Amino acid sequence: MFDQALPYKLVQIKGNKSKNESFMNEFIYKFYRHNYRCCIKYIVSIKSYEDGFLTLDYYPKINLTPKPNSAESLQDLRYRILTKQHSFGIIGGTILDIMQEVQTLTGAKIWGFLAANLVSETTNVNNKRYKVYKEVLRRTYRTKHSVFGNKNYSAIFVIPLDLTSQAELIVKRYEEIFSETY
User: Fold this and answer.
1) How far apart are CA 100 and CA 98, in angstroms?
2) How far is it, in rounded angstroms, from Cα 101 to Cα 83?
3) What are the φ/ψ torsions at residue 113 (nearest 5 degrees)?
4) How many angstroms separate the CA atoms of 173 and 175, rounded?
5) Rounded to two decimals, what is the model's pTM?
6) Using CA atoms, how far apart are residues 80 and 155, in angstroms rounded to an integer?
7) How many CB atoms lie within 10 A of CB 67?
8) pLDDT-derived band of residue 118, with 50, 70 and 90 as boundaries?
9) Cys staple from 121: which of 80, 117, 138, 147, with CB 3.0 to 4.6 Å?
């Protein structure tokens, strides 16, 4: 199911110029998903941190405008949009390929993810993305990594088996990383 990937391209590698975040580099990729109605461009942003930590965000590149007087920003909306393409298999396969490429480029192997809520999902406990992403990662990284999550915060961690004894420290570091961006 996730063994197919769309063609993708590394657009740029940006160094961190922000004083608000602690990442070292950001790898930005793009790919396109076509269906009978449209073509949607996806952006994948992977940030690398000290000690081999990586985070990944992806979203469709669609012009969005927050509603007037809304508490949501454009940043919130881009991760919540439904593309109606119903094709996570090939999109997921592309993202997994990109993850492998970044691991090869950086040598880093520790991943942390936050699964964004849709507007209709009022709590993280009923977050459908969390359930899907965790299962996909568990099946993909089953031999050399431990995959676990915190459903209260919709956080997912992929840690090499030789570092599972340090899982508590890794989770604390990711809490710091996630708090920088939200």
Assistant:
1) 5
2) 25
3) -135, 150
4) 5
5) 0.80
6) 16
7) 8
8) low
9) 117
In contact, 152 and 124? CB cutoff 8 Å: yes
Alpha carbons 7 and 4: distance in angstroms, whole number: 10
Q: At what angle do helices 128-140 and 88-106 cross, to 10 degrees?
A: 60
Query: Higher model confidence: residue 61 or residue 11?
Result: 11
* Distance (Å, whole) CA 155 – CA 173: 13
153-158-164 Cα angle (round to 5): 105
CB atoms within 10 A of CB 150: 14
Question: Helices then strands (H, E): number in the chain?
Answer: 4, 7
Cα–Cα distance measured from residue 98 to residue 46, given in angstroms and rounded to the nearest whole number: 9
Nearest CA among 114, 95, 97, 104 for reference residue 156: 114
Say which amino acid occupies 97. D
Q: Quote the tokens at residue 22.
A: 């602690």
Number of Cβ within 10 Å of residue 143's Cβ equals 6
Encoded tokens for 171: 């989770």
Tokens (6 digits) for 11: 């657009």
Residue 27 is given by DSSP the state E
